[in-house]
Design a protein that fits this description.
7-stranded mixed beta sheet, 4-stranded antiparallel beta sheet, 52% strand
Amino acid sequence: QIHLVESGGALVQPGGSLTLSCTMSGFSFDRLMMSWYRQAPGMELEFVARISPAGGDRIYGDPVKGRFTISRDNSKNTVNLQMNSLKVEDTGVYYCNTYALLSEHWGQGTQVTVSS
C-alpha cells in the first residue's frame, strides 16, 4: 500500500522561506512522477509543482514559478518543495501526490500559513 507523509509546514512571515518534505513508502519511488498541490481555505485544489521520476523534468504552476523549487532524493524516497519569497496567498494545506497502481495517492497534508 502506497503511503505518503508530508512534513515541514509552519507559520512564516511574508518574504520568508520554508521547505516541505514528503516521504513515500509502498512502491518503487524512483518510477513515479511526484507532485505537490495546495488548497487554500474555501478554494479548490491547485497544482503547485511536478517532478519526473529521475528528477530531470520539472513543471510549476504559474503562481509559484520563480519562487518554488521541487526536488527529489530517490535514495530516501523523498520529494521536497523549497518555497522562497512566500506571500500571504501561498497560505494553505500542501499535499503530496502521485499516481500509481491505477490510482491517485495523497498524503494527509501539511499546513503552511504566511502571515505577519
